[in-house]
Amino acid sequence: MSRPGRMARLAAAVLAGLGVTATGTPVHAAQVGSERWVTARLVAVGVPDASAVSAVGTFLPGGPIHDNPAFAAHTQPGRILDPGRILVASRSNFGAPNASPDWEEGALLSIDPRGGRPLAIPPRFAASGGQASTLEGRVQLFSSQSGPFRNGNNNPLAVTATFTGVSNPVGLSINNAFGRLWPANAPNGLAGIGSSTILDPTGIPLAGAPNPHAGGVFAGNLTPRLPAQLIPGALARGAVGTAFLGRSPDGSGRAVFCVVLADGSIVQEHTEKAVDGLAPLRTVSPVLGRGWPGGHRTRRRDRQLPTQPDAVRQRALHQHRRGDRPS
């Protein structure tokens, strides 16, 4: 879907502190000196460390979410992928039990911005697990760092089976044309390894993954293109942004994305052929050492990790050296 198409549906969305604001349609922007102002209204409060935000938008014919009746049901009015809703990332599980205490919490929320009053999101509304909902369905948990959303639920043999769909999600891109949702995560802070996931409407990394080695989660140096990469590269730092490039020109028809990492490097992800490098360190401005207001845990880890690597990264490197990968 084009950028103007997304903007028309959401009109505009910005993050303000711990709240989420969204304008109505059309957008009313004004130029005041060197600044542009957008008229907006408050939609929701109570989203700890809010980061990525995206309109859901319309999934087009020819794609798995539109054409699969079970998936298409999730796009009906009031459901979790209703085109008029917005997805917002947070560094909280909203009460859902952690899948791993070594990883940061995190969730994607599906929020209905249509309504007269701001939504005050309860901090533990997802404690019951799964795709919980609150406020008469206007807020729904799409995915979180909890057991129901492990990669292994759909891909038990994947090298990243224990990873979840989201963990400290920082970026989000949606393939409305012929694919799914692709969050970018920094599960151990910006200086730890990154993960990039492909999620079904259930919030679980995709079932029937074309790359059984990765399933629906690319992470660290565990999921390179095999038997050899075209360009060396790995998700060696937190993933902070994801962008849809299009169908692969290799004839497979698979989706190809690029992921920006916290050190300013960029990797390329092919749904079937996994991860290649794309651009070196500092291709874009690095964000290592930065954090969100109140994000003390992430900032502390970012300072320590260059000399004291986190346990997950150590384990991933150890597994890579031992060759602990399913065939």
In short:
By secondary structure, this protein is of the alpha+beta class.
Shape: globular
Number of E strands: 19
Order of strands in the sheet with the most strands? 6-7-8-11-10
Overall mean pLDDT stands at 84
Into which percentage range does the β-strand content fall?
Answer: 25-35%
Please tell me how large the radius of gyration is. Answer: 19 Å
What does the model show?
This protein is an alpha+beta fold and 327 residues long. It has one domain (3-322). It has five helices and 19 strands. It has helices at residues 3-10, 64-67, 69-72, 296-304, 311-322, and strands at 13-16, 19-22, 29-32, 35-38, 41-45, 53-55, 86-90, 107-111, 119-120, 133-134, 139-144, 169-174, 181-185, 195-197, 217-219, 239-247, 255-261, 266-270, 274-279. The protein has a five-stranded antiparallel β-sheet with strand order 6-7-8-11-10. A hairpin with a 2-residue loop joins strand 1 (13-16) and strand 2. Mean pLDDT is 84; it is low at 1-19, 22-27 and 294-327.
What descriptive keywords fit this protein?
4-stranded mixed beta sheet; single chain; 5-stranded antiparallel beta sheet; 5 helices; 19 strands; disordered C terminus; alpha+beta; disordered N terminus; 327 residues
